[in-house]
Amino acid sequence: MTALVPLVVLIPLFAAALTLVLGRRARVQRIVAALALTAVLVIGVVLLLAVDGDGALVVDVGAWPVPSGIVLVVDRLSALMVVISALVLLAVLVFSIGQGLADGDDETPVSIYYPTYLILTTGVMVAFIAGDLFNLYVGFEILLVASYVLITLGGTESRIRAGVTYVVVSLLSSVLFLASIAMVYGALGTVNLAQVALRVQELPLDVQILLHVMLLVAFGIKAAVFPLSFWLPDSYPTAPAPVTAAFAGLLTKIGVYAIIRVETVIFPTPELNPALMVLALLTMVVGALGAVAQADIKRILSFTLVSHIGYMILGVALGTVAGTAAAIYYIVHHIVVQTTLFLAAGLVEREAGSTSISRIGGLLASAPLVAVLFFIPALNLGGIPPFSGFIGKLGLFQAAAEQGGALAYTLIGAGALVSLLTLYALVRVWNLAFWRSRDEVAGDETRLLRAVEEAPLSTSTVSETRTTPRLMTISTAVMVAVGIALTLFAGPLYALADRAAENLDGPDAYIELLFPGGVEPAGDGEPGSGEVTP
Fold this sequence. Notes:
- It is a single chain.
- By secondary structure, the protein is mainly alpha-helical.
- Helices cover about 75% and strands about 0% of the residues.
- The chain has one domain.
- It has 22 helices and 3 strands.
- It has a 3-stranded antiparallel sheet.
- The longest helix has about 30 residues, at about 155-190.
- The radius of gyration is 22 Å and the shape is globular.
- The two termini are about 15 Å apart.
């Protein structure tokens, strides 16, 4: 079974090389990319079933023994993230194939797009299964380099401008992360997560806090935690629809995943938990207020993306099994639902020629299927019962109530308020873009155009309406169905999240995977790989 672990990285990597060699043979590129992501999804499901039933998998790359070489670790959390990421990336790929076939690949030139998209997939997979800080950094850099290309596809002025902001912020985050790794290695002589967890308690408390803060700041930028989230609303909306959907669904969650690893494996102590809870509160509230103030669907969704990162940080900051389990479930929910909403926004843009709610209307009558595909995930994101958004929020609130305290109850109240604000922002989109008639839009055209002209940061443009290919609609519908499945199968999924959280209750289980008995080897061991049941 351990032989399957490297394949989630090698398959998209070799597929990227193959699609690059194929050059302008777009049809073959599409087939290769789709087959590669399908294979990763299947392997991810097999790995998830294996680790949930038999325990985590550990692979020593190149047969170098731990901790001398690179180690890959697949536990319940990383296997779950591999599966949901592969599913989302495959759905977005199908969406982009449909868009490319309809538009002649004007938005996503295939000679660049498919190899870069597969490189992005490679980076995502590396980040989820890396067993040390440096290879986690490598995974981040692989996906970030690919994202620099994807976010500027088409070369328009708005995309280049947004891309510059994104690149600068990402480079700053990478520098901070690399500096943190250097400090960890200088203080402990290793970057292996299990070894760091074993040795970090020997450091003075002030040094531990410094390393802890450095890592949190680096990952906080990647996760778009307030006040480090300023870059996101101006960066994501300008990219092509499939790129925006993939970014919104996955990239910030990788930052949250890294924060979970830091808080549960390296620094499980509660010293910074109150600070994280405050940041979670601010992230939720500021993001929701930003969403309410926007007049463009993509920008509204970008601000709601920021606000819902706060829910995930809340679960992590509680430092309990219940909080971590709720955070894991909410991450899975949000990856699916946020991606779906951005795909639906891409459909709206094709049908109406814009995503500005001040310029479009009547979509319920002209595109009822698109209306349904937007309406269902919008209710889900707003936390309406019985959808997965409600289940995830309820789990977070229950975990906070169990911990108690003024800050925890404040976060419960803020979370409920943010859920209402999210619902208000999305209902506003529904009323103006779908329910309102086109005649009402035309009657207010002069006033609304003047308002748009007075908003220099607006990313809305008006283009010709275009027919919507079936592949784009099908891929969005599949994601809507997956979101509904998260509700129908919430019990088993939440139970899986709870089992994953139990393994993350302190560093002992992770250390046991790499160092049976919880003790570092005195010398080099025998090369190979192992399968361990924690």
